[in-house]
Design brief:
heterodimer, A: about 85% helix, B: about 240 residues, mainly alpha, 13 helices
């Protein structure tokens, strides 16, 4: 099961890579693979067992797979130190402001949708 | 006599050394996180620091480590493809709030990405830093891929993503409640969109609906960023 699902995922990623080289240079191969798989799932209407098993196993260990790339930060310690306050300040400010904005907007839209529904019911 | 120095060198330069160190560090980090449940003890962050410690102590370069850790990183591609599954499962759940979700994701996503870059530019960060910061609101595999594509550095993007997620998850829910955002779908969406996986795990603690919307927002935001950001950058530079 796991191996069959994994094979599917690899096939979609390789298809994505081929398409990336052929037409879509701007999008990374794995992202094209993701969109292809999503299209396939929508077409099928459900997630079959092998793909479900493989994807949940892989995604469970996603943080582990990211560690080697994160370690690369040791090479850029100097660059980070140079821009430390600019980067830190803008990260903190932008995450808080954009989160509040998104929450506020969603809340307003939900309220409006509910008011409209109530009116429609009356 | 025994050649201890030779054995040590053979050990630390073996192609499996990097894999072993990473696996060990990750399990320790996960154990520490599960024991304490502290938000800032994110497994990726803690294992990153542990691995860097070991590499520095053994005098190994990042290039050598990267080479030996390929056995792990090669699976990042299929894992990114696998993100389609939670995305698909979540898409089925949001029928009711389709338009509010879509509008918030589109406008909020532009605000989240644009504001980070604009602020950092205004504070005087250089181009490479800006491009590594742009995908900060999305989950790390996508952020790292995108940063790499648009002229940033994947490792830096990973760190920025992590900082963003941890700050958002720690301060987010309380601040959202203060400004009157009380619908679980709105809280979840805001958390998942801006603080990706860390925000989503925080949202899951708030409740099922909150968690589901966070997961949905995280995956949609990830895909949209992956598709749109490289295009936008290519058009403007």
């Amino acid at each position: 099961m796991l191996l069959r699902g994994l094979t599917w995922l690899v096939v979609f990623q390789l298809l994505g890579t081929a398409l990336n080289v052929l037409f879509l240079h701007l999008l990374p191969g794995p992202i094209i693979g993701l969109v292809l798989l999503l299209g396939y799932l929508i077409w099928q209407g459900e997630v079959n067992e092998p793909i479900s098993v493989a994807s949940s196993s892989l995604l469970r260990y996603l943080p582990l797979l990211l560690v080697p790339a994160a370690v690369g930060v040791m090479v850029y310690a100097k660059a980070i130190a140079a821009d430390f306050w600019a980067v830190g300040g803008s990260l903190v400010l932008s995450v808080l402001l954009s989160m509040l904005f998104a929450g506020w907007m969603m809340q307003k839209l939900i309220d409006r949708q509910q008011r409209k529904r109530e009116k429609a019911d009356v | 006599m025994f050649d201890f120095a030779g054995a040590w060198q053979a050990l630390i330069h073996h192609p499996l050394f990097g894999v072993g160190v990473t696996l060990g560090a990750y399990q320790l980090a996960v154990a520490a996180y599960e024991k304490t449940r502290w938000f800032f003890l994110q497994p990726v962050l803690v294992s990153m620091l542990a691995v860097i410690g070991v590499l520095v102590a053994c005098g190994l370069s990042y290039d050598e480590y990267k080479q030996s850790a390929t056995a792990l990183t090669i699976f990042l591609g299929p894992a990114t493809v696998a993100l389609a599954v939670p995305l698909f499962l979540n898409l089925k759940r949001i029928r009711q709030l389709f338009w509010p979700t879509l509008l918030t994701l589109l406008i909020g996503g532009v605000v989240a990405t644009g504001m980070g870059v604009l602020l950092a530019w205004w504070f005087g960060a250089d181009h490479m830093m800006l491009m590594s910061m742009a995908p900060k609101s999305v989950t790390s595999p996508i952020a790292m891929l995108v940063a790499d594509q648009i002229g940033g550095i994947a490792a830096l993007a990973a760190v920025f993503v992590l900082i963003t997620g941890v700050i958002g998850a720690i301060l987010g829910p309380e601040l959202l409640r203060r400004i009157g955002v009380h619908h679980p779908a709105a809280q979840g969406l805001a958390l998942g969109m801006t603080a990706h996986a860390v925000g989503t795990s925080r949202a899951l603690q708030e409740g099922e609906e909150c968690g589901a919307f966070a997961a949905l927002a995280m995956s949609l935001m990830g895909v949209c960023t992956a598709v749109a950001l490289p295009l936008v950058v290519a058009l403007f530079t």
